[in-house]
Amino acid sequence: MTITVFGFTRSPFSHTIYYVLKELGLSYEIVQPNSYEDIKTPEYLATKHPFGKNPYLDDGDFHIYETRAIARYLVNKYQGTKNSTILIPTDVQKAALVEQFISVEISYYTEPLFKMVRQYALKKHKGIEPDLKIINEAREEFEKTLDVYEKLLEGKDYLTGEFSLADLFHVSVTSFTLSFGEEELMNKRPNVSRWWKNISERESWKNIVAEYKSENTQ
């Protein structure tokens, strides 16, 4: 049975799915849309993603969309079948702590980063100058979140003590944001810096970065 990821390979959401797949030791195929118009057609909306987004994943005849839902599906079905990597523990309480930090990531971490990325993307893709007020306010909001993370990560290499899906969900959007010259955000807090190095220098993520750079310089 073939696992197929449909989505733009430059998308941080696609990268998150690739990261999960590689960590679980799974083979997969990638299919890219030809253009943004392709994901807005009536057929796409009716059969692939009703909100006209990507990625989605096909696992044989099973179809699923939304990044975090895809990730949880892959973990629930395939974790432990190809290697020993554990992204969601089987212990109920340990799994609950992973979900706790996934909720933290969604609620407090990712949103200010997306505010920044949206502004930087205007410059990169449309030639429109970003709104520095929005960027600075979002950066300030994110700095406050990192101050809390600095305390949460005291004495720990990962959010729950062991690498998990909660850590993984932070990587792609953070990496994307840092690529716009925001590296210092992760460097000036020692616990955050250590954690970021741990989660962004795993072999599976480095492979994704290498593939992405290679693909987009051809």
TrEMBL record:
Protein keywords: Transferase
PROSITE patterns: GST_CTER, GST_NTER
Domain GST C-terminal: 91-218
Domain of life: Eukaryota
Catalytic activity, as annotated: RX + glutathione = an S-substituted glutathione + a halide anion + H(+)
Coiled-coil ranges (or none): none
One GO location term (cellular component): cytoplasm
InterPro entries hit by this protein: Glutathione-S-Trfase_C-like (IPR010987), Glutathione-S-Trfase_C_sf (IPR036282), Glutathione_S-Trfase (IPR040079), Glutathione_S-Trfase_N (IPR004045), GST_C (IPR004046), Thioredoxin-like_sf (IPR036249)
EC annotation from Swiss-Prot or TrEMBL: 2.5.1.18
GO molecular function per UniProt: glutathione binding; glutathione transferase activity
Domain GST N-terminal residue range list: 1-82
Similarity comment: family membership: Belongs to the GST superfamily. Phi family.
Name this polypeptide is given: glutathione transferase
Protein source organism: Rhizophagus clarus
Lineage, opening ranks: Eukaryota, Fungi, Fungi incertae sedis, Mucoromycota, Glomeromycotina
